[in-house]
Amino acid sequence: MSPPQTMPQWLSVALSSEQHLNTVLRVLTNRESKRDSARTASQLKALDNKSQPEETRFPLAFLSRRSKDALPQLVNHYAVAAGAHEAHHHFNRYVDIIPYDRTRVGVHEGSLGQGTERDGIWEGRYLNASWVLERFGHKWWIATQAPLKHTAHAFLSAILQPVVRPPVEGPTSQLVISSPISRVRTVVQLTQNMEGGRKKADAYFPTEVGHSVVVSPEPGHGGPPLKATLLETKTIRESHCIQSTVSIIPIHRTGESVLIINWTKAKLNENRNEDHKGENDDEIVVFQHMLYTSWPDHGVPEPEDRESLLSFIRLVDNTNRNISSFSGGKSTAGGLDPDPPIMVGCSAGVGRTGTFIAISSLLRYCGFLPPAARPTPASVIHASPLGPLPDELQEDEIAQEIDSLREQRPSMVQRKEQIFLIYELLADAFSENK
User: Fold this and answer.
1) Which end of the chain is more exposed for a tag (fewer CB within 10 A), N or C?
2) How far apart are CA 239 and CA 201, in angstroms?
3) Is residue 69 a part of any domain in this protein?
């Protein structure tokens, strides 16, 4: 699909009309407010358990009064019971950003699929991550918060394990299942580990090429420790990107202590002779970690950095389609997915993350990125109980995209500056194409 030569009329109207943009902000804010009421009511329902010890009870003061009055059907649709469960509370980096139950990513032994509930028990290890489908670009993503130290094992497991399928509604014939071996092989990080003197993300692989870190599972999970090794790193200046090639391999050890995210040089040297014990080369999985360095928290890239962001988006897409440097073990030869889901996160996994996915979707739809190798129609995702957007926004594909993303993960494209950025970057792409 070749990019169109002229900017679509709806985009020209949006960019030239302050009234239109104000309508977009008002409508999207009102709809997200209703979702917020429903999900906070869901949290209240899940957490207001007087039998819990006080010290483990969730702080409920931030829940608004109106959330308690949310309609039951909205509470059920926007339920966040898994993430609000007392057993999972400390796995959330932020108490107000919890994935919807219907789209949450479940990390299972041997596969990566959708989290489900059976007889009141949540199946699949909890990870603050959501399946998200582009409305217009038709590609699946995993939107996730930055891992904490005690969620690093589940995060790496999500990369290590094959993807089964994302959550869908309606006939499964509408969903094109990926090729025999589909794994996440590109991880996009849109936040620095430290920003403004605050921890925004925890590292889960070492900074020195050739060094490794062994990450143990969280208490209560019996899986093997995972060793992450930095194989290569390079800086791509035009994309403001640090690209790292990382391998993961399970370590099947018994009766041995392992390092828990402790990769000081001394510790590494002490354990260097143990590096290959309990490892099976057939289980090695390699992924690309793509860090964009010019996107501040609670903001947007500076005008002079916009070109680099467009370049970075194209780089991520190209990297994900390049199978030459990836491995899923010897058993996967000839069966790699040509365009698997990409895992993307910032700190909370909603603001910068949602903006990045929205831009990618619209660029793909307008022909500035290649189409998804296995496109999935937006009709497979759950219809919104809030109904469609009003008539005046039916042609605004950016408003439609943002609202669809917010249906799948709370607070996606969190700030008005990020909404405006999507309009501006899409316009920039058309300007570049002249």
Assistant:
1) C
2) 21
3) no
Mean pLDDT in residue range 327-347: 74
User: In which domain, by residue range, is 271 found?
Assistant: 9-35+136-432
Structure tokens at 226: 């995972």
CA 76, 81, 84, 85: dihedral to nearest 10 degrees?
150
CATH, residue 267: 3.90.190.10
Q: What count of other Cβ atoms lies within 10 Å of the Cβ of residue 50?
A: 6
Whether 391 is in a domain gets the answer yes
Distance (Å, rounded) from C-alpha 337 to C-alpha 342? 12
Distance CA 403, CA 244 (A): 33
Domain assignment present for 154: yes
The letter for the amino acid at 399 is: A
pLDDT digits (tens, 9 = 90+) for 299-313: 899 999 999 999 999
Helix (H) or strand (E) run with residue 286 in it: strand 285-292
Distance from C-alpha of 108 to C-alpha of 95, rounded to nearest angstrom: 24
Q: Distance (Å, rounded) from C-alpha 339 to C-alpha 123? A: 27
Residue 206 lies in a domain: yes
User: Could you give the number of structural domains in the chain?
Assistant: 1
Backbone angle region of 255, left / alpha / beta, with phi > 0 → left and psi within -120 to 50 → alpha: left
> Between 246 and 125, whose confidence is greater?
246
- Asked if 164 and 142 touch (Cβ cutoff 8 Å), the reply is no
Do residues 178 and 337 make contact, with C-beta atoms less than 8 angstroms apart? Answer: yes
Instruction: Report the percent of the chain where pLDDT is more than 70.
Output: 77
CA nearest neighbour of 386 among 25, 31, 26, 24: 31
- CA distances for 236 relative to 171, 241, 308, 309, 311, angstroms: 43, 5, 10, 12, 10
Any idea which of 112-121, 274-283, 284-293, 302-311 has the lowest mean pLDDT? 112-121
